[in-house]
Amino acid sequence: MPVDAKSPRVGLMVTCLVDLMRPAVGFATVRLLEQAGCTVVVPEQTCCGQPAWNSGERAAAADLAKAMIRAFADCDYVVAPSGSCAGMVRLHYPELFKDDPEWGPKAHHLARRTHELTSFLVDVLGVERVEARYDGHVTYHDSCSGLRELGVKEQPRRLLAGVEGLRLTELPEAEVCCGFGGTFCVKYPEISAKMVSDKAAAVAATGADTLLAGDMGCLMNMAGRLHRLGSPVAVRHVAEILAGELSAPPIGGGKS
Amino acid sequence: MPAPDTPRDTILGTIRRAVATVRDETAARAAVEQRLAAPPRNLIPARGQVPPPQQVELFQRMATLVAATVEPVAEPGRVPHAVADYLSAHNLPARVRVAPDAALQAIPWDRRPTLEVGFGPARADDPVCVTAALAGVAETGSLLLASGADHAAPLAFLPHTHLVVLSAADIVGVYEEAWDRLRRRQADRGLGMPRAVTLVTGPSRTADIEQTSLLHAHGPGRLHIILVGPPAHGAEPLHG
Amino acid sequence: MIPASHAFKERARAAMADPDLTRALTKFKTGFPLKRAQAVAALPEFEALRDEGKRIKDHALAHLDLYLERFEAKVTAAGGQVHWARTPAEARAAILSICRAAGARMVTKGKSMVSEEVGLNAALEEAGLEVVETDLGEYIIQIRKEAPSHIIAPALHLSKEQVAEDFRRVHTHLDPARSLSEPSDLLTEARVLLREKFLAADVGITGANFLIAETGSTVIVTNEGNGDLTQSLPRVHVVLTSIEKVVPTLEDASTLLRLLARSATGQELSTYTTFSTGPRRPDDLDGPEQFHVVLLDNGRSALLGTEMQEALRCIRCGACMNHCPVYHAVGGHAYGWVYPGPIGAVIDPALIGLEEARHLPNASTFCGRCESVCPVRIPLPRLMRLWREKEAAARLSPGPQRWGLGLWAFLARRPGLYRLTTRLGMGLLGTMGGRRGRFRYLPLAGGWTGARDFPAPTGRTFQDLYRESQRARP
Q1: In the beta sheet, which residues pair with residue B162?
Q2: Which C residues 40-99 touch A at CB under 8 Å?
């Protein structure tokens, strides 16, 4: 199926956390993709299967992966506002079906077309600049899967650099895990708490008023800890800033 | 056939069963033989692959970075002075234990009559030992020492101060060149690998207490390299 | 060493409550990665060398039987002896019989993790031998009767005050007026004491970082020089090592040496890299009369040919734990066995059993930092995940965790039911979250809400809202 270079058909893999916890990130993603000329579709979907995969539940992960592969079969690209879920599809779906002659090729096909949002905008579509304004002093946490599985590092920074009014201070140890780790944070809550406390201290050290990242899991973890500490730092998904989609209060920040 | 029951048989048997499924036996044996007979070089960093004069400079720079000191002297006749002056500058007794290496024995030690020179293996109370080195390796500023009839390993470990007399012509760029030299030398002598071959890179150190880096752990606290001969031309290697 | 990995959670909790340990780890977690990063930046070929390191070890493992046989033949030809040990007990017995035959009374030791693995010191002491660890860090933990907390920095967890206290307790000759307040004071005290031991030892036992098939050499790297004194001065040198350490040639060892110290401490090369081949030769000025190599298997050969084989590439640099945020939080002792951190999480279950070690591959966020620094590119998170698969298959994990995940997977496989349930659930949570927009406590989520609020969902799911907005579009 040839890709319409001007208006590719992009399937939004919204991710279960965005779907359930923070629809604003989904709408921000749709807006960014449409602004970049994409035709966005949102097939009915549940979960990419990563929690099952990382828990060693291969059969459950395979069932969920097959549903995703089916749901996005007719898209030119698939984009997720998450490095973690995009990484699951890009790296682990092929691994999951590596000995499966029927689903293996399908998994590879989906993997090749799937991208994390900021990486898709910058690396695939060549977006240089988004039209957005944010009067704030932000810092950015690099979520692990996006960073190390997909090489997402410069893309969000490049896009943020074009946001009017925004000032970015780099987070010390930005590449160190926040302690979320999917089921890790409930299996080993105390260790996770120590890790996210260190992260909260690093955030405080920047003096930023806003913390951004590209993955809902990490954001909920960091926002949860910052709120518990009484920190005034607003926590948002990077897509919200890039799309100027600020209608929802910051994560865990109550209703305005 | 009796069941394999020595630990050796069990271990090798388990390994064979695991690897045999994924390899062609004849090809595997040939590959191993070939690799051992003519060891191929792997990727070698460019840093040490420079012309000899630059190797000498690189050696000096790298050795200095790991807290060794390097003192160039023009010819072997200057070595006794360099040794004696170093000892006096560091308030050390004018007494050295020297490895009974042919090149070191050929040094005119009597040019500094006050320097007490004893050849032989190190003794526990020797404060300063002088050894030669088979090679200096520029890429990390390392010295290659080999035990034998002319060198005892503890000479480089027991004393507080280790002095090394190295000919600039014996500096090579990378480890692989040092191995070639060692293999050639041993083959010429009809010997296999020496009992102990050591790459020495700077003085002894530890960071085991609170990650604080300290020199002089168990080995020498000072490593001083007397580099003999102009680097570019004319220098005779002390060791073939 | 008796494993305590099953108590990982309790040990981790105790570790995080220890202020000395927390202080040490705070320094450690930035110091080691920074040094490695500087060493890597100074060598443009470093990433390519990692590929080479992987290739060399993969080749060696694929021909492990052949290289071990050649290694053994070369050791024998050089006048040494190789002893094969399937189990820790066989390794201990081999060394004990060497010591007895030599009439040994005192044994000095260089650092060896395999020695910890087989519990050698206890066995030798039980047989009446005096055993002295000579690496400064190992010596400190020996007198504290502790295990190493890091594979290359065994006393990482201690403060200098703790070490001073131990020295005063054990070194009864110490003048109370003598200052031991600085690390250099402690080093001097240990050096003087250990020098006597080096000179008096009958047997010296070291480990090996590599074995070289071409020459029959064992290779150790140290910074202190203790390993060389341990193996050069006594009458007998015993190398206790494991089968996966063999590499073909000096060239191959050189490539791995270019990776090892840079990955470990950020040094270009450790201070002393020594290749030992056989005992003293007739014309030699020095050296031991006997040279023994004890080759331990202890479950390693069973990993060959499985997906876990990749773990056998490990060259024990410690980079994975130096970069692991979980190790940074809890330190090495929490892991409860010899090999902590990510590599421990992968090999410990193989060596001591998954039931004992099941926490270790679970206690990872899969952040991937370990894999990104591993000099031989071991896919550590993937291998940890494979242990989780084995655990799931064996139903070893706690029931509630499995049920929670099972319920989620059940729903996610049924989109209609999922939509209905999540719509109701998020609506309820959104309402309950109220104006605050977060929960201080959530039933069944005490782990989360123990230290952080739970951000409330905004109430309706994206998919519902999106479909609604699409219908509203002209």
Answers
A1: B129, B223
A2: none
